[in-house]
Predict the 3D structure of the following.
Amino acid sequence: MNENKVIPEHIAIIMDGNGRWAKQRGLPRTAGHKAGVEAIREVIENCSQRGIKYLTLYAFSTENWKRPQKEVSALMELLVFYLKREIESLHRNNVKIVTIGDMTKLPEKAQNEIKSATSKTCKNTGLNVAIAINYGGRQELVHAIKKISLEYEGRTEEIDESTVSSHLYTCGMPDPDLIIRPSGELRISNFLLWQMAYSEFWFSNVLWPDFNKDHLNEAIASYGERNRRYGGLDLKDRKVKK
Ligand code: IPE
Ligand code: IPE
Ligand code: MG
């Protein structure tokens, strides 16, 4: 047994593997993205039920614009479809929706849907869901550096780690305790680069459209077994021997 929280306060998920899920079935990639959207509900419901406070979902990276225009448009349409369809039930379940990333580059329809979802749920006190759209960890840091340099005008001695944290899109959110990446890839793909300094990771070969509450439970159980030391020592090793 260790002294750490058994349930993570903040879970972040890289929702990956939609394309391969579709390919396995001889379907177009967009069918994989549609199936991926369907997997979100169960995860949100279970996080809510388990008392997790923050869930961050990586939906579209700053690098995903490199994909064919048709696929990018389909993803943007799906975002609008998802928010339109789910917002009432999310709101009823006290879920608060925010986004992280640069929304200004999104199609107007998507921006409007996001604005309406975030303002509708802004007073909710249950699960906080942050959707990462046009998000990139490096882009977020550049954005923060620009803001900090304007604000501090060279007073560099006043800048510390909390200054950086509070100028990120995730300002006010705790760092992720657990980062989940399905699909078999063992990389971060520009997700939460600053925030993951002491995150725990859970990788799995399951493709995102097949991800369900059992995988979530497995990841949380694995997290519960971890021994987070943050560079220090275990509690038991810290005791002075008499
Ligand atoms: C994740 O699935 C969705 C986005 C990145 C938007 P992918 O589309 O990356 O699926 P794979 O990796 O090709 O299987
Ligand atoms: C990461 O997946 C981004 C999202 C899931 C939104 P990618 O499929 O874009 O990542 P790479 O290209 O495999 O690194
Ligand atoms: Mg992928």
Observations:
- The chain is about 45% helix and 15% strand.
- The longest helix spans residues 69-92.
- The mean pLDDT is 96.
